[in-house]
Design a protein that fits this description.
The chain is built from two helices and three strands; from the N terminus they run βαβαβ. Helices cover 31% and strands 26% of the residues. It has a three-stranded antiparallel beta sheet with strand order 2-1-3, with no helix packed on it.
């Protein structure tokens, strides 16, 4: 299965609580942190919800 790299580029402070929980569920804690996740529809949906705070590399 292919993987994607997700990088947090904006702070979740002051954002909608649901979006903050999504960032945490993706495993992101600090700005600039990069995590590698499997490319699944569930992960893609989470990314789409908070894409304004992320940078995604395939």
């Amino acid at each position: 299965m292919s993987t994607i790299k997700i990088k947090l580029i904006k702070s979740p402070i002051g954002k909608i609580p649901k979006h903050r929980k999504t960032i945490t569920a993706l495993g992101l804690k600090k700005i600039g942190q990069v995590v590698e996740k499997n490319d699944t529809p569930q992960i893609r949906g989470m990314i789409k919800a908070v894409e304004y705070m992320l940078e995604v590399e395939e």
